[in-house]
Amino acid sequence: MYSSKMSIPPPKILDLEFKEPLLCGPGPCNMWPSVRQALTKPVVSPLCEEFFKALDDIRAGIKYVFQTKSNLVLAISGSGHSGMETLITNLVGPKETLLIATRGIWDERAYNVANRYGIKTIVYRIPYNTTFTLEELEKQVELYRPTALFITHGDSSTGTVQKLEGLGDICHKYGTLLLVDTVVSLGGVPFFMDAWGVDAVYTSTQKALSGPAGISPVAFSARAEEKINNKKHKTPFYFDINLLAQQWNCYGNTRSYHHTMSPPLVWALRQCLRELSMETLEKSWERHAKVSRHFYERLQRLPLEFLVPNPEYRLATVTTLVLPNGYNYNDVVKYLREKHNIIIFPGLGPTAGKSLRIGIMGVNSTEAVADAVADALVDALQMLIKSSL
Predict the structure, then answer these.
(1) C-alpha to C-alpha distance for 210 and 31, rounded to whole angstroms
(2) Angle between helix 80-91 and helix 222-229 axes, rounded to 10 deg
(3) What is the DSSP string of 169-227?
(4) pLDDT tens-digit profile of 200-216?
(5) pTM here?
(6) 203 touches 209 (CB < 8 A)
């Protein structure tokens, strides 16, 4: 009946089978077995009691992992970038000022997002293999008195972790909100939203939480909530926190419909938070620190250098390494995948062509995984130099 009108034939989509790799790049990470199982739970309506209970469990878990008593906590339907865009667009309006402390690609992405909404952006940049001092950040905040300061806690493009304790007090002294990216740090290193005076924070599930990408927890302080409630600009509908707070029942009296969330991702996030709650944050932080120390000891036996020279600035979840002269970063990445089925990444943004990025986090944060990666690097360094002679 319709054949005469069909100009495009059905594609031949074949089964795609492959052995699951060991995901040791800066993300995604392999999933907890229980999270994989959670993804198979039934799809349910966004307006049924089972779904509401799952959202309540997630909110309790988000409060725990961010260490906040705030009620304005929920998860955005989208990757980590959706969390970034939610924070920026709800808290900073057109013609207002966002100061961006830049040392890696995610700060550059924040700059990109802000500019698309007509926000005045000021960039304060330092070398990518170091971090900011509180003194230099205070000078910038005092000088520009921005509406908000955006900073990345753990940066997966550089392998650095930023000290945040005391920064919230500095920001509030000058009437500035503190916005923080914790996508690759949360669960792997200590983070205290309330104690550190963080006003808005986001993360995502595919890193140290060991879940699938696609859903991003966010949290807002009382200061941030006041700014949201009194903002003069319109927020994108999909990222409107006032509307999302009603869907997530943040204040205990609403069950409004905003959009249809993905039930598999909701079940997965709930299980990620459950795994971390059962282990406890303290034990997870200790585990990541112990495994990273073990990995560093193995690496020090190899002709490699750390991209980040100061150990205090190194991120426990992602290690960045410099290869000896004569090696190609993409060749090493390719060798580990083809010979060992281990995925690591080359540099990104400011570290492109300058480093390997190796993530050992979440369910993969074990000495066995660290040894597997170190052994694969030993093999790559031996074989690739031979093949180039």
Answers:
(1) 5
(2) 60
(3) HHHHHTT-EEEEE-TTTBTTB---TTTTT-SEEE--SSSTT-S-SSEEEEEE-HHHHHH
(4) 999 999 999 999 999 99
(5) 0.96
(6) yes
